[in-house]
Amino acid sequence: MKKLLTMMIVVGTFYACGRTSQERPEIRSVTLTEPVLLKSSGIINYSGIIREAHTISLGFKTAGQIERIHVREGDYIHQGQLLAELDDADYRLGVEALQIQYDQLKNEVERTKQLFDQKSVSANDYEKAVAGLQQLGVQLQMNKNKLGYTKLYAPTDGYVQAVNFSPAEMVDAGTALFTLLDVSHMEAIADIPVNTYRQKEHFIRYYCKAAGIEQELPMKLSGLTPKADGNQLYELRLVFAGQPDEQLTAGMNVEIGIVIEDTTSASGFVVPLCAVFQDKETEYVWVIEQDSTVTRRRVTLGNTDAEGRAVILEGLTGKEQIVRAGVNVLQEGQKIRVIEKPGKTNIGGLL
Questions:
Q1: Which SS3 state, helix, strand or coil, does residue 107 take?
Q2: CA 134 → CA 103, 128, 145, distances in Å?
């Protein structure tokens, strides 16, 4: 690969030399770039487990006798689905009784208003009648709410993990009738040791692998507990970057991979391939001086990286500004003009 890189640079140099005139122009227009530190990385694997988003204990908001249960353990339910009902006969009677009282008092208040308008009733008596109607209206609404509470609906999508009661049994308000697994999103949990936790600032990306699934599943960081447990381990929580695979279920064992930036073994810099030129089998780059002139700097090349950039092993400190495009028409000490953006006829800034 290094031979191929050298041949590409030689061809570019000869092509440019054929076009360059013998006269040294005063100013050349160029585009600049900066060396990027070459970063290496390592992968650390830990055992993890898939966990549902939440475990929900679900019960009625009022007491009563269970009349019907519409789901069984293991059923997948949807948000808003009817799960169970209480016997609502007494609640209906309570609503009807208060509705009759409310309608009667409402008629009385209307007649009182007519008398008040005719100044036959005092303002105090009229205000008392209105307040009594409002209070009865609140009681009526409370009874309607309790009647509505006799039906239990699913708050989210998920699975019924447990059904704790049977029809005809009595339950109090808040008693857990169902245990639901909220699988609206899934998490992967792993415990990491202190030496890995200390490198958390250098975590680059995460993934998980499961039995029966060939590809790596990309993950995103959800949380990292800053307190160690009794075994000096820190809980790492990850969520799926995309839609989780349907084969993944809560409780499944997976392998969690953490890609960590390895700054200790990083060496050299990467620059665009077009920033390197060759003269007499030696590679150089043009470095910009403070007076806007260029000086060629000898560099030692490695292989190209995964993105096709040239790897500079020696010759740069990383603080330089170097010429990115226009390297083959420059001369030592020549004045340059920096082009901030490629022109319309220079698509991609290649010239």
A1: helix
A2: 12, 10, 17
Backbone angles phi, psi at 201, to 5 degrees: -70, -15
Q: How many CB atoms lie within 10 A of CB 231?
A: 7
Alpha-carbon gap, residue 224 to 200, rounded angstroms? 9
Residues 6+ apart with CB under 8 A from 255: 45, 46, 47, 48, 208, 209, 210
Measuring CA to CA, which residue among 258, 268, 342, 265 is closest to residue 305? 268
Task: Give the containing element (helix H, strand E) for 115.
Answer: helix 89-117
pLDDT in tens, 15-44: 444 444 445 456 878 888 888 877 666 789
Token duo for residue 44: 């650390």
What percent of the chain is modeled with pLDDT above 90?
Answer: 47
* pTM higher than 0.70: no
The contacts of residue 193 (CB under 8 Å, 6+ apart) are 232, 233, 234
